[in-house]
Specification:
The chain has 187 residues and is mainly alpha-helical. It has seven helices and no strands. It has helices at residues 3-18, 23-30, 34-47, 66-78, 93-104, 110-119, 136-151. It is flat.
Length: 187
């Protein structure tokens, strides 16, 4: 439910409370939970219709001013290399948190930096971790020769697996085994 719709529903609830309609009926009519209706009724009793007006989105407030957010967006647009991360062109959440600390002297956690990046239209990236001494030619040779040998051709075509959830066939049962003559199998 959008913020505008929630606001409208609360105002409708206030009108119904003024008509002395009970919260369960308000909940049914407005298609909300009974718990919400009771909470709204309590707010309405304590502060009238004005108490049901939205106070904006929840959550903690951003610790950066609008001007700082503009600067941060410009810094992110410049790329990581412009700010000292030359090994790859990737903005990780940890790097953004560090950048915010350096430029604005405000501490952000990695998850807080992630949320802030999303708010600004960016998404944090995870850098590819490779060994500095990696020998690409040796990796290619290993993949083509050794891995093909180790991997093998797979399971033979006729191989199957047993499963407890599949019913056993009647053909595989012994004639004199346990359960012979018992009730007929379910279909």
């Amino acid at each position: 439910m959008g913020r505008q719709r929630r606001e409208t529903v609360r105002m409708q609830a206030a009108g119904l409370f003024e008509q002395r309609i009970k919260p369960p009926e308000v909940a049914r009519r407005l298609r909300v939970s009974v718990k919400s209706a009771y909470q709204w009724q309590q707010l309405w009793r304590d502060g009238g219709t004005e108490a049901l007006v939205s106070r904006g989105p929840g959550g903690s407030r951003c610790r950066l001013s609008p001007r700082c957010l503009e600067k941060l967006t410009a810094y992110l647009d410049e790329g990581p290399a412009a700010h000292g991360w030359v090994e790859d062109q990737v903005w990780t959440a940890a790097r953004v948190a560090t950048l915010i600390g350096r430029k604005f002297h405000v501490s952000y956690s990695v998850s807080g930096a992630t949320r802030l990046m999303h708010r600004l239209g960016f998404s944090p990236q995870v850098p590819a971790r490779r060994v500095a001494e990696r020998d690409e030619q040796a990796v290619t040779v290993w993949k083509e020769a050794t891995w093909a040998e180790v991997k093998g051709s797979g399971r033979p075509a006729g191989a199957t697996s047993a499963s407890r959830t599949r019913r056993a066939s009647r053909a595989g049962r012994p004639e004199d085994g346990p359960g012979v003559g018992a009730a007929a199998p379910r279909r």
